[in-house]
Backbone:
């Protein structure tokens, strides 16, 4: 079956630090990959996505590259802000699946 | 404004007292889902619906029921809630297209004592 593994949190960084949140996946087909963000007290919002190998998704300074050879989709940002404090979820959907499969989430706290 | 709404946002109840959490979307989406979020477990799908009168079990359906009589609404029913159903619940919807964005509601915090 499909599965998504994210790095354990929580992650605490200082403002302007570099961020990496690791995500690896197992899928039977050729999935589409997503990063969702959940701000405190809110539902999840789509942050970025990539639908095929070597695609790079980007939004709000965040990037992630679909690496088929390493089955990874790591989230990166060059300079985080306090407002980036949130929980980040990696997710996948392959062609045969009806819905998304989520990782366990990574809590990010950015200190001023 | 395109949105998914849930009610109530917070609910405290007792074991065995039937409850319903409502979910409504205004985007004419075919797919709707219910998830529960628990610490360290991420989001787990409870039930989903591909269209009116079409529903199916997700990963953790035990103790829950759903119905889809109208396209916009997808209520979650707990016939006899138990403490292990204490959780944060999210409703979500999307179009029928394969990689379309999933829109989430704001969540319902349920506590069963």
Residues:
């Amino acid at each position: 079956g499909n599965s998504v593994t994210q790095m354990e949190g929580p992650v605490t960084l200082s403002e302007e630090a570099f961020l990496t949140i690791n995500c690896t996946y197992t899928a039977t087909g050729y999935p589409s990959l997503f990063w969702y963000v959940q701000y405190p007290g809110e539902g999840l919002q789509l942050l970025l996505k990539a639908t095929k190998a070597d695609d790079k998704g980007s939004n709000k300074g965040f990037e992630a590259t679909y690496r088929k050879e390493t089955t990874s989709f790591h989230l990166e940002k060059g300079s985080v802000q306090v407002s980036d404090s949130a929980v980040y979820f990696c997710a996948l959907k392959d062609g045969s699946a009806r819905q998304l499969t989520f990782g366990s989430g990574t809590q990010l706290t950015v200190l001023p | 404004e395109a949105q998914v709404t849930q009610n109530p946002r917070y609910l405290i109840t007792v074991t065995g007292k039937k409850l319903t959490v409502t979910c409504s979307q205004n985007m004419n989406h075919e797919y709707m889902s219910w998830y529960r979020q628990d610490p360290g477990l991420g989001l787990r799908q409870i039930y989903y619906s591909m269209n009116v009168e079409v529903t199916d079990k997700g990963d953790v359906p035990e103790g829950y029921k759903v119905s889809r009589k109208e396209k916009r609404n997808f209520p979650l029913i707990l016939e006899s809630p138990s403490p292990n159903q204490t959780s944060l619940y999210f409703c979500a919807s999307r179009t029928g297209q394969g990689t379309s964005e999933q829109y989430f509601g704001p969540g319902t915090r349920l506590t069963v004592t």
Notes: The CA atoms of residues 85 and 109 of chain A lie 5 Å apart. Chain A touches chain B through 20 residues (CB under 8 Å).
